[in-house]
Every structure is written in C-alpha cells, then in structure tokens.
Amino acid sequence: MALLQNHIAVVTGAGSGIGQAIASGYAREGAKVVLLDVNAQAAAEAAREISQSGGKAESFALDVTSREDCVAVAKQVADKVGHVSILVNNAGIARRNGMLGALETVIEDWEDIIAINLTGVFNVTHAFLGALRAAKGRIVNIGSIQSFVHVRTPSSPAYTASKHGVLGFTKALAAELGKDGVRVNAIGPGFIETPLNEKVRASDPSLVKIFLDHTPLGRAGKPEDIVGPALFLASDLSGYVTGSIVMADGGYRTI
After folding, report:
1. pLDDT on residue 153
2. Name one GO biological process term (predicted).
3. Is 252 a catalytic residue?
C-alpha cells in the first residue's frame, strides 16, 4: 500500500520549489494534497499537474502572515476537502542582507522574514491544530542548515534567527503534542536549487562555490532531494520519531 494512503496533506509554499516537490511526492504515495501559496496561480498550476498525473490535489491562496486568512483557509479545507492529518510548513523567504546596511532595509528584512518564516509557521499550525490533534497527525517544518549555523556567505541575521526559531518551535510543539499522538519534526535542507535562489545563483557563482566547497557530496541539492525525508516524517515509517530534524544538506554540517 502507498505510504500516505487515506491521508490529507496540506503543504504551504507549494506553488514552486521544495513545497511543490513535496506535494507531488505525497500525491504519488496516495495522499490527497492541498497546495497553499500566496501565489494562487502557481498553486493552481501545480495542483493541475498533480491531477493530470493521476493524483488528487486542491489549491487555495494563502498569505501565512495573516492569522485570519489561515483560520479561514483551514475551514475551507475542512469543508471542501476533509480532515487534515499532515501539515508541511514550507513557505518562506530569504534575503541576504546583513545588519550593517541601510536602517530601513535591515528593519524591513527582519519584519518580513520573521513574519513569514517563523510567525507564519505558528499561524498555519495553530489554524490546523484541531484537525491534526483529532487525526493524531504529523507536522513537518522546513528548517535549514541555518537552524544551527550562520553560513559563510552574505546572509541575513533575520533568516538565521527565523530558522533557529523553526527548530525551537518544532521541539517545543513535539513535547506538548506527544500526548495527543501528534508527531512534530523538521527537515534541514542545505543549498537547494529553487526559484527562491535562482537569481542569486545566476548572478553570483562565487556564492554557489562557497556552498559547494563546504558540501562533501560536492553538488547542490534539488527539490526532489527533500521529498524522501518528507515522506519518511509524514508516514508510519517514522512512528517513533518526534522533536527531531532530518538534515538533507549534502553533509554541509559535517565539516
């Protein structure tokens, strides 16, 4: 039987990149997937591709920074799709500016990154929490190598802080929800080639080299490299795993 048969899985930031890959992977393993993205058109197109490949998918527009919208979408999903048993908090942004730039830029980066990458995880999780507790569900949060380290590239302290926060939130929630049978884990991607960093990769090959020189596998990751860990953490294969982070970083943190 497929790993995720009879599950309904919600994936945020599912219109492209890692989120889209995870949604497609879950659908292949039998889940009915709900793709959420601030870009409604991208989410709808990704859902169509899944449906055309024989999977079951729905999409909704969602700005994870709006608690009211998260609650409203959770109700829509319950009414139109069913009871959610898997949540993947993937939506996020990255900006590579430090603390010493223009004051307005520093403040804007902090507010936007924390609002999406950290508070957004809280907002979506809280909105779906009732359904996840009822289903003894699974939550998978997308962290980063920057849940542990500040990488050796120009990189926003806000991004590092947000991903440290995601890991802390994962552990705290796992401890609180364990008694309800809800498992909460995270994935720590390394340097993954996604639309989020496409412009940076094209304009600054030296930055890419810094990452690859520090990665034992010697290559950048692809969104599909995150699908396996996401399937493991959402399925019964990880039935005794909670409060953990699975690193998918090509070995970055080993050196």
Report:
1. 64
2. fatty acid elongation
3. no
Find the catalytic residue in 26, 159, 240, 252: 159
Contact criterion met (CB below 8 Å) for 81 and 58: yes
Q: How does the average pLDDT of the chain come out, rounded?
A: 95
Q: Are 62 and 37 in contact (CB under 8 A)?
A: yes
For 8-249, give the CATH class. Answer: alpha beta
The predicted-structure confidence for 23-56, as pLDDT tens digits, reads as follows 999 999 999 999 999 999 999 999 999 999 999 9
Confidence band, pLDDT 50/70/90 cuts, at residue 122: very high
3-state SS assignment for residue 89: strand
Is residue 177 within 8 A of residue 162, CB to CB? The reply is no
Which one, of 14, 36, 39, lies nearest residue 25 by Cα? Answer: 14
Instruction: Give the list of residues 6+ apart from residue 138 with CB closer than 8 angstroms, or none.
Output: 85, 86, 87, 132, 182, 183, 184, 185, 233, 234, 238
CB atoms within 10 A of CB 98: 13
CA gap 226, 121 in Å, rounded: 18
The domains of the chain are located at 8-249
- In this prediction, residues 64-81 reach a mean pLDDT of 98
Give the pLDDT confidence of 147-170 residue by residue, as tens digits.
Answer: 887 776 666 899 999 999 999 999
**Residue 142, both tokens:** 């997308």
